[in-house]
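Input structure tokens:
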């Protein structure tokens, strides 16, 4: 059976020989996660339209259906397909789309399910490029019309791929909403102009192998392995905002002495317009972590950080720029890490003049107790984690609802979302009962930036009029996607979010 599993280059040779022999080549490509009767009939149609049926599957790394997917790894998925008599050969594609295998195999017939026949509904846009590539080599796309099932639906119903609380939550949610209830608010962001304000942070991961304690010193010795650096902080927020909104202008501060500006610009998404100011004599903030790569376990952090207030002239320039342009934006999203960019005057400008103001004021090791969200007297949306909320009102033990009410007394804000890490999130919209959203996955690779990812999506959604509960659910989903990514090695895209939301509701 495994002899039917070939590399893509081998499939290319097999297909070329078949064409030379006058045999028609049919190619089917997909995830084929949970093989079912719909897949069988789909492939049978392909076999009836040619003499050689090749099936290629998406490698695990590029299956963008969210945490817990694929259910079966690529080798097992390939083996299952190879077990079907009608399938001549199976291959595993190393690329996210089918264009690569189409170019290599050049099929006479490219097989797709009926759900792809309306190209305008394909969130990835790939069916159009796939069709163009097939036709470029003289082939045609054949959409099969037969009984269909959803692997995502089967996984949701038959397999325990979500935590128990999330499974119960999703079962109830599927009876309340459809995928259009989530995609419509996302679509509504397409013409929104956003201003993002906050601190740029570069996250450096230095991967090391712990060696143990040296015989003469009370320290832990490590062996250097390799290094990665990511654009984090407000840059990561802007990248996600830029996936959904029409434009995203980013005002931030870089160090004039060591700015890393070329790296930052290269790491930002095309829709993000960087508008930097510079702190003289300083370097851009870098948070360097020694990391055990086995479980992405962080051992120690060294922060290259200057976080005192900006020089008066620089701060005045930042404030004038925002004051002069703020009315041009549909919403202002503030990622306040407390590293010296945002002073009292700027807070006053933001609170008085922003049409819609979303605030995330973070507590970290450098500012604990000095960067509370309550320094903003007004906001339209606040998203902070549970410890930050409790610290802001000096209340360690009250129920979260009571904490939110104390926050409301200290700042004018109708919409709060309090994130709880492994416990999910709490949505507190004015005039409504507290609504809880459980965590959607327990498969944690790296938690860095998960809260920022949540905020980056939920904030513009609330700003465009989306129900805060639905905004919180979408934010939760994006947070679940983010914790499967090391650092900011990969930027989550809009098609990936829509595909994951779709799979959650099946």
């Amino acid at each position: 059976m495994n002899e039917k599993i070939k590399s893509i280059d081998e499939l290319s040779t097999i297909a070329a020989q078949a064409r030379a022999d006058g045999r028609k080549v049919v190619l089917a490509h997909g995830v084929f996660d949970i093989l079912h009767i719909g897949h069988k009939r789909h492939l049978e149609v392909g076999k009836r339209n040619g003499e050689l049926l090749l099936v290629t599957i998406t490698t695990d790394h590029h299956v963008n259906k969210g945490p817990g997917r694929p259910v079966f790894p690529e080798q097992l998925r390939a083996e299952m397909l190879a077990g079907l008599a009608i399938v001549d050969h199976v291959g595993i594609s190393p690329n996210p789309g089918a264009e690569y295998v189409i170019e290599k195999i050049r099929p006479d017939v490219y097989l797709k399910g009926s759900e792809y026949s309306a190209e305008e509904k394909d969130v990835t846009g790939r069916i159009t490029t796939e069709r163009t590539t097939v036709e470029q080599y003289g082939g045609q796309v054949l959409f099969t019309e037969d009984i269909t099932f959803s692997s995502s639906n089967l996984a949701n119903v038959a397999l325990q791929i979500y935590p128990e609380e999330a499974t119960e939550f999703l079962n109830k949610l599927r009876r309340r909403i459809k995928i259009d209830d989530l995609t419509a608010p996302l679509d509504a962001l397409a013409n929104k102009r956003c201003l993002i304000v906050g601190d740029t942070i570069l996250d450096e991961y230095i991967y090391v192998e712990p060696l143990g304690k040296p015989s003469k010193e009370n320290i832990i010795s490590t062996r250097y392995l390799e290094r990665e650096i990511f654009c984090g902080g407000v840059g990561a927020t802007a990248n996600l905002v830029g996936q959904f909104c029409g434009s995203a202008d980013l005002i931030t501060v870089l160090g004039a002495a060591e700015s890393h500006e070329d790296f930052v610009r290269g790491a930002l998404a095309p829709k993000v317009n960087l508008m930097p100011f510079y702190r003289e004599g300083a370097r851009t903030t870098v948070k360097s972590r020694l990391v055990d790569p086995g479980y992405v376990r962080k051992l120690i952090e060294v922060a290259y950080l200057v976080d005192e207030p900006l020089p008066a002239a620089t701060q005045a320039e930042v404030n004038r720029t925002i004051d002069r342009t703020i009315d041009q934006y549909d919403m202002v999203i503030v990622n306040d890490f407390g590293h010296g960019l945002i002073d009292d005057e700027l807070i006053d400008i933001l609170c008085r003049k922003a049409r819609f103001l979303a605030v995330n004021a973070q507590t970290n090791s450098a500012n604990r107790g000095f960067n509370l969200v309550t320094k903003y007297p007004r906001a339209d949306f606040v998203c902070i984690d549970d410890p930050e909320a409790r610290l802001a009102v000096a209340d360690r033990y009250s129920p979260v609802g009571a904490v939110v009410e104390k926050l409301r007394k200290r700042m004018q804000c109708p919409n709060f979302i309090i994130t709880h890490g492994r416990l999910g999130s709490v949505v507190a919209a004015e005039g409504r009962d507290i609504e809880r959203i459980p965590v959607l996955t327990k498969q944690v690779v790296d938690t860095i930036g998960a809260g920022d990812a949540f905020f980056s999506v939920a904030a513009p959604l609330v700003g465009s009029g989306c129900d805060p509960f639905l905004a919180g659910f979408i934010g939760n989903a994006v947070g679940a996607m983010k914790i499967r990514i090391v650092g900011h090695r990969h930027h989550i895209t809009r098609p990936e979010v829509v595909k994951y939301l779709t799979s959650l509701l099946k």
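The chain has two domains: 2-158, 182-200+235-278+309-504. The radius of gyration is 25 Å.
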